[in-house]
Amino acid sequence: MDRWSSEEPDDPALPTVLKSLDDDKCRTILTLLDNPKSASELCEECDLPSSTVYRKLELLRESMLVREYTEVRRDGPNATLYERDFTDISISITDDEFTMAVSRPEEDPEDRLATFWSAMKEESQ
């Protein structure tokens, strides 16, 4: 019997995380997100079409491995940026149950505010 659980109720589903990590393009994007980047920057660095990058970013967001936020700019249009949203993933098995723990970076107040505004933007669409 295959069963799984996560240690946190808000953690993503293990099958979704495994699907993301099994995808070589997703792994490439995760490697490049050592600091926040826009989708167009990722397209250039990965040498992938924008449709592929957006599809992979969506999968990584569903897996809660990447977070998206809007950077408000005074001198031009706002930018949507993506950043890696984990520091470590641990998958264990005991008896018949898989467990997963996802360690996340600590958020400073500025990050929490950016997350808040991104959520507000999504709800208003």
UniProtKB/TrEMBL annotation:
Source organism superkingdom: Archaea
Pfam family, one: HTH_20
InterPro entries documented for this protein: ArsR-like_HTH (IPR011991), WH-like_DNA-bd_sf (IPR036388), WH_DNA-bd_sf (IPR036390)
Organism: Halogeometricum borinquense (strain ATCC 700274 / DSM 11551 / JCM 10706 / KCTC 4070 / PR3)
Cross-referenced Gene3D superfamilies: Winged helix-like DNA-binding domain superfamily/Winged helix DNA-binding domain
Record protein name field: Bacterial regulatory protein, ArsR family
